[in-house]
Amino acid sequence: MKKLACLALATCGLGLSLLQALPAHAGVIIYGTRVIYPVEQQEVVVRLENKGDRPALVQTWLDAGDIRSTPATAQTPFTLSPPIFRIEPNQQQAMRLRYSGEAAPTDRESLYWLNVLEVPPVTTGSEQNNLIELAFRTRLRVYVRPSNLPYPVGSAPSKLQWQLVSHNQGFALQATNPTPYHISLTSVDLLSDGKRFSKAPNQEPNDSLLLPAGDVKVFALPQLRDRPNGTVKVEFTSVSDYGARVRHSAGLTPTASR
């Protein structure tokens, strides 16, 4: 157990590709790009499959947002069964995720992370000294969703509020999420007079385009140096519960509520 936890910290594969099957690497894949946990459900099943040609040892755990978490240090209101398992080549494994019922916000989603650590089998024989074996860790978002939210999740992106603000001697788009849902974005652009100004590249992978419920974020527009005149609109892409990318267009709001 301790050896696996150390490997989790040493080598982390964190690319969250928006595909129906999310690869941890060429071996084990996780079906889905996120986990939606309706709080009234007894459990949610997450499926994995070993597409490789060798057995894989997998360890799983959840954390509340600490990328340095290990199975020994992470504390969340979940149980995950089985926490450690072996998958033979071309075989599947179902993980059962259960929420403990611990008190959670009832007016908005809560976010946790599912960690899947794959450890390759030990190589034996004359080739062992010429190989470097790596463990791969993948993290998926787990959204705990209350049952009494006022509107469907698909309506949330259209309720984002956008404002053009001064930023570092230039301009930026300030996005306010007044909804009870966490909204994942993949692109943010400002269109003015036939020109497109895109947000600056992510400084940190993974989370810079995640707008938690009630959050406010600022997306720098490095190519926009003068305040635009005339009609201005925002184009952005959100990610649905099923991993699909959905395009949206919105106007600027006079103010952005916090």
TrEMBL record:
Primary site of residence: periplasm
Transmembrane regions listed in the UniProt entry: none
One Pfam family of this chain: PapD_N
Domain Pili assembly chaperone N-terminal, chain residue ranges per copy: 27-149
InterPro entries xrefs: Ig-like_fold (IPR013783), PapD-like_sf (IPR008962), Periplasmic_pilus_chap (IPR050643), Pili_assmbl_chap_C_dom_sf (IPR036316), Pili_assmbl_chaperone_bac (IPR001829), Pili_assmbl_chaperone_C (IPR016148), Pili_assmbl_chaperone_N (IPR016147)
Domain spans labelled Pili assembly chaperone C-terminal: 176-246
GO cellular component assignments: outer membrane-bounded periplasmic space
Keyword Cytoplasm: no
Gene Ontology biological process: cell wall organization
Residues annotated as signal peptide: 1-26
Lineage: superkingdom: Bacteria
Statement: the UniProt record of this protein carries the keyword Signal: yes
Location(s) in or outside the cell: Periplasm
Similarity remark: Belongs to the periplasmic pilus chaperone family.
Full protein name: Fimbria/pilus periplasmic chaperone
Source species of the chain: Pseudomonas cremoris
